[in-house]
Design a protein that fits this description.
Order of helices and strands of chain A: HHHHHHHHHHHHHHH
Radius of gyration of chain A: 21 Å
GO molecular function (chain B): electron transfer activity; heme binding; metal ion binding
Protein name (chain B): Nitric oxide reductase subunit C
Oligomer: heterodimer
CATH topology of the largest domain in chain B: Cytochrome Bc1 Complex, Chain D, domain 2
GO molecular function, one term (chain A): heme binding
Shape of chain A: globular
Largest sheet of chain A: none
Enzyme class (chain A): oxidoreductase
Number of helices of chain A: 15
Keywords (chain B): Heme, Iron, Membrane, Metal-binding, Transmembrane, Transmembrane helix
Distance between the termini of chain A: 17 Å
Radius of gyration of chain B: 22 Å
CATH superfamily of the largest domain in chain B: Cytochrome c-like domain
Strand content of chain B: under 5%
């Protein structure tokens, strides 16, 4: 670690890990309600559990992105952060707002749309936090070296803030509401978040493999180009059945089918760089997470997205557990894993703990990933069966659900394995453990 | 990566291409906004209030509406028609309201819906919202299989 101000990242990573734990624990509760619907007290209905599960996910991923940015920006720009104090203040504001939102949810303080249940004052707080962050990072970028990685990263982060503003637009016309709700949700996760993900991966590739920056940066442009060329019009795959014109079925099908390309390019990129790179970096766990990230993102976001993205197929699968299967593996592969890769790379340095316990970390990789993959498989089977029973055979929703119990038990099992992996991961980073001497 | 693709060419393709596709997207969305105002613009004050009830109680965190939301409970976009509201509006209205009032069922093994203690007016507004959503042309979604199971 070359720059003193990179240390603020530690705060963000630890904060993100606590929310990650909350996210998966509430995920377990939600999975439990699918198999034991009367098993929890009345103050914990599925709706509240789900909003905490999804909101904690989004907030810890963003907190992770913020931390990753604060960590890599000084090294990329070759200058200290504009204001580490502002970064710390921003963290606490964000963390307290997130905590207040979660506690508020338990007491019924929510209002809005899916993922955007935060009360108005929390949403305003999020904008303030984003502005503090962007100001700090943009000032750092302006005074330092401008690399492709830092430019794309900051562009992606500006995009996140800009598209979040559509969270404030909620018209009575339900079609317009839904159309622009996707400007936050889709243009985030299938748009600007991919810019953030690709630039973090590119940074890790340079550090871990030692491949020439020139090569990595050309790849980065190709990947983010593919992401936006397909992802922007790919928004059309959310405009099939919400009251929008029929031509979106063509546009959405064609462009979103191509959304697999940037993820495929990321697999080729990470593996080619690792193969070509001459560096034998001691942090093998970080390399494992980086390679795993591109592979699981390819399957979760790419393949599992493609499975139900064509309009004639989506007509039957839309709003079933197929969507849940895709959502779990895609978020895990693309955005959880890229954060965990960076945490694994940076935390030992931030804690002055090199060498560190890699074996436990790598175990957590395999356990967590197996858990999510198993969960995804169970939900995929549940979704296929649900689609057939409900949309082909004409079962009612509840009658179809009654046939899916086995798969929901399997999903809960996958969830328990995932939580075990998360606990091991947190332990491997934060506990001193049995340090192994690495040359 | 191919040798003939220079970094500055890659940069220009990325920025130019992204802008190109974003402009096309904005144009299509603008056209769709016009379409959406025709298709879903006739919303009464009561139905609009019903939409706020839907949001205030996070109904979408269990139900889907036009397939969007959570999948813990049934799709409600066309629930008005499922309850026969097009043939017997008063009967469907009463049935929907009493269903919501009677929750939770506490039947073992059955997904539970909380009791939201909605006022009679809020319930009517919510039903008006469902009447509104049932009028929206969703390209024949959800599928309506002939053979009831």
């Amino acid at each position: 670690m070359k720059y003193e101000s990179q240390k603020v990242a530690k705060l963000y990573f630890i904060g993100a890990l606590t929310l990650f734990l909350a996210q998966v624990l509430f995920g377990l509760l939600g999975g439990f309600l699918y198999v034991m619907p009367t098993g929890l007290p009345d103050f914990l209905p599925f709706s509240v559990i789900r909003m905490i599960h999804t909101n904690a996910l989004v907030v810890w991923l963003l907190m992770g992105f913020f931390g990753c940015t604060y960590y890599l920006l000084p090294e990329e720009t070759e200058t200290e952060l504009f204001s580490p104090a502002l970064a710390k203040l921003q963290f606490w504001l964000f963390y307290i707002a997130a905590g207040a939102a979660v506690v508020g949810y338990l007491f019924g303080y929510y209002n809005g749309r899916s993922y955007l249940e935060q009360p108005l004052y929390i949403k305003v707080g999020i904008v303030v936090v984003a502005l503090m962050f962007l100001f700090n990072c943009s000032m750092t970028l302006l005074k330092g070296r401008k690399t492709v990685i830092s430019n794309i990263l900051i562009l992606g982060l500006w995009g996140i803030a800009l598209f979040f503003l559509f969270a404030f637009y909620n018209p009575a016309n339900v079609i317009l509401d839904k159309m622009f709700w996707w400007w936050v949700v889709h243009l985030w996760v299938e748009g600007v978040w991919e810019l953030v993900m690709a630039s973090i991966l590119a940074f890790l590739m340079i550090k871990l493999t030692g491949v020439d920056r020139e090569v990595v940066e050309k790849w980065l442009y190709v990947i983010v180009g593919l992401a936006l060329f397909t992802g922007i019009l790919g928004t059309g795959h959310h405009y099939y059945w919400i009251g929008t014109p029929g031509y979106w079925q063509w546009i959405g099908s064609v462009f979103s089918a191509l959304e697999i390309l940037p993820f495929f390019a990321m697999v080729i990129f990470t593996f080619t760089m690792t193969y070509k790179g001459g560096r034998d970096h001691p942090n093998k766990a970080a390399l494992l997470w980086s390679l795993g990230c591109s592979v699981i993102a390819f399957f979760g976001a790419g393949v599992w997205g493609f499975l139900h993205t064509l309009a004639p197929i989506n007509y039957y699968t839309h709003g079933t557990q197929i969507t849940a299967a895709h959502g779990h593996l895609a978020f895990y592969g693309a955005y959880a894993m890229v954060n965990l890769a960076m945490f694994t790379y940076a935390m030992p340095q931030l804690l002055n703990r090199e060498p560190y316990n890699q074996v436990l970390n790598m175990w957590s990789f395999w356990i967590m990933t197996s858990g999510v993959v198993f969960m995804t498989a169970a939900l995929t089977f549940a979704g296929v069966l649900q689609t057939h029973l409900q949309r082909v055979m004409g079962f009612t929703y509840m009658d179809a659900q009654a046939q899916l119990g086995l798969f929901y038990w399997m999903r809960l099992g996958g969830g328990v394995v995932t939580v075990t992996g998360v606990l091991l991961f947190i332990g491997s980073l934060l506990l001193p453990g049995s340090a192994r001497k690495v040359r | 990566m191919a040798e003939h693709l220079t970094k500055s060419a890659a940069r220009n393709i990325f920025y130019g291409g992204s802008l190109f596709f974003f402009v096309i997207f904005v144009g299509l969305v603008a056209q769709s906004v016009h379409y959406a105002i025709d298709n879903g613009g006739k919303i009464s004050a009561s139905a609009a209030a019903g939409k706020r009830v839907w949001e205030r109680h996070a109904c979408f965190d269990c139900h889907t509406l036009f397939g969007e939301g959570a999948r813990f409970a049934p799709e409600l976009g066309k629930v008005w028609l499922r309850y026969g509201g097009d043939k017997d509006p008063q009967g469907a209205r009463d049935a929907l309201k009493s269903w919501i009032r009677s929750q939770p069922t506490r039947i073992e093994g059955r997904h539970q819906m909380p009791q939201f203690n909605l006022t009679d007016q809020e319930l009517d507004e919510l039903v008006d919202f469902f009447i509104y959503t049932s009028t929206i042309n969703t390209q024949n979604w959800p599928p309506q299989p002939k053979t009831a199971g």
